Amino acid sequence: MKQALTVIATVLFLLAAHEALANGTRHFGSVSSHAEPEKHEAPKTFVCRYISGDVGTIVGKGDSPHAAQADAAEKCFDKRVSLFETVRGQNVDTDRGQDFIDSCVNLTCS
Fold first, then answer.
1. Over its length of 110 residues, how does the chain's per-residue pLDDT go in tens digits?
2. Structural domain boundaries enclosing 75
3. Measured distance CA(12)–CA(4) in Å, rounded
4. Which residues pair with 46 in a beta bridge?
5. What is the pTM of this model?
6. Distance set, CA 3 to CA 10, 11, 13, 14, 19 (Å)
7. Least C-beta-crowded within 10 Å: which of 16, 35, 39, 68?
8. Could you tell me if residue 61 is inside a domain?
């Protein structure tokens, strides 16, 4: 019985060692002095620039091109609303707000 448990334990150890080596993991005390440090890529930030005649240049940033465009669209809308309210001295109505949304959602990044 003791011999069977030893054999089973040995087989399990060999399977674990095989999996670790197959995955490139070093856990068995054989750390090489030439081990390369792990390389971590810096998170990439995407930028969307949109030049508008009425509110100037808008820059959106995000973790993906889509997120950068969405950020630029939101900034575009906010600038247009702010400019309208400053110049006209009144709040944006629903129809005008919808026009602002349509023009900002369809912006093209350069």
1. 666 555 565 545 555 555 655 555 554 455 555 556 667 777 789 999 999 888 999 999 999 999 999 999 999 999 999 999 999 999 999 999 999 999 999 899 98
2. 46-105
3. 12
4. 62
5. 0.60
6. 11, 12, 15, 17, 24
7. 39
8. yes
